[in-house]
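Quick one: DUF3489 domain-containing protein from Qipengyuania atrilutea, structure tokens please.
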Amino acid sequence: MRPVNWACPGSGGHFGSRAKPEARMTKAVTTQKPTTKLDGLEKLLKRKSGASIAEMITATGWQQHSVRGAMAGALKKKRGHSITSAKNDGTRRYRIEVAQ
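--- reply ---
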């Protein structure tokens, strides 16, 4: 039989009763989903002026073929956006058409 003044296993070395329930409760933390590069790309394309490939490359750090693939795969097919392009002053700009 062990002496009475030993701490109970799992008590963290404390004698006597465990911490009160109020002391163990933590605040509810609301966390937001971190913004991804794909979310940033979507935000660029939703602007009224849209975005050029060069702007999308700068914003994401991706290569040109990766930006085009993200537009075709993730934004068009998976997220269901309609992406249009227009060539103004020699620069092609892409944008997401907002359904009305």
